[in-house]
Amino acid sequence: MKKLFIAALALIGMSSSAYAIDFEPESGVSFQATLGMTTSKISNLDDYQGKVGGTAGFKAEFMLPNAHGTYINAGLDWTMKGAKHTETDVPFGANGIHDVTSKIRTHYLQIPIHVGFRYNIMEDLGVYGELGPYFGVGIGGKFTEEIDANGTWTKPLENSYAIFKKSKTQENLQRWDAGVGFRIGAEYMEHYSLNLGCDWGVTDMWRDDFKDAMHDAGMDLNKIKNFSFTIAFGYRF
Fold first, then answer.
1. Which of 6, 15, 84, 216 is most buried (most C-beta within 10 Å)?
2. Is residue 30 within 8 Å of residue 237, measured between CB atoms?
3. Residue 65: pLDDT over 70
4. SS3 of 85, please?
5. Which of 131, 126, 136 is nearest to 182 (CA)?
6. Is the whole model's pTM more than 0.70, yes or no?
7. What single-letter DSSP state applies at residue 49?
8. Long-range contacts of 87-91 (CB under 8 A, 24+ apart)
9. Strand, helix or coil for residue 130
């Protein structure tokens, strides 16, 4: 009986190994396009909440040979970031009392470089996770304030301006950003995927000359950093 039990365990082990080998991802290079949405924040920017935006990208992935599902990838992403804040019952002289919404809208090109692992739980379905740094540059952005006249209309105020523009008197951000990101997801039929991810910025986004001007005026600014959560669909070529 004991020998039969041991033989059964050995047979199960061999079957499991064969199953894992049958469904192990093939090594080589592939390409993937992604499209999705982001929810972003800027840390330590008091009273500002998250803001919804979009993202799209293209990446190349190399599945390492004889590495049991380990891969590396790199790509180029366009992504929207920023934050917003609404203040209620703000007096505007003869215009009365209104709500004011301040928005920071930024657009970045990012290069993520990730190391990941994919495991195919069945022939047509795999799950994966990846982690690594990203490097980004701001290609556009704006700070705007909008007033709400009793919910009937909104009007941008005249102090809307480019957020990456160099200035010592207006709040402005540097273009360069860097951080760490991770993704988890599932892939169907080696083509269609859905992934969730987060990017944590490690770069202080205040422009140095603006920080120095505020310091000279007696105000030391806290470091602010980008954060974004992403949900995206992908297609592998």
1. 84
2. yes
3. yes
4. strand
5. 131
6. yes
7. B
8. 87/47, 90/147
9. strand
Distances (CA, A) of 211 to 18, 19, 119: 61, 59, 47
| CB burial string 190-215: b at 16+ within 10 A, e below | beebebebbbebebbbbbeebbeebe
- The tokens for 109 are 């090109």
* Sign for the pseudo-dihedral over CA of 17, 19, 21, 27: negative
Nearest alpha carbon to residue 104 among 83, 123, 90, 124: 83
End-to-end CA distance of the chain: 52
Of 25-29, 115-119, 152-156, the range with the lowest mean pLDDT is: 152-156
- The 10s digit of each residue's pLDDT in 122-177 is 888 999 999 999 999 999 999 887 776 555 555 555 557 888 988 777 778 999 99
Domains of the chain, each with CATH number or no CATH? 26-236 (2.40.160.20)
* Furthest CA-CA distance within the chain: 95
Contacts of 55 (CB under 8 A, 6+ apart): 34, 35, 36, 37, 38, 77, 78, 79, 80, 230, 232
**Is the C-alpha dihedral spanning 20, 22, 26, 32 positive or negative?**
negative
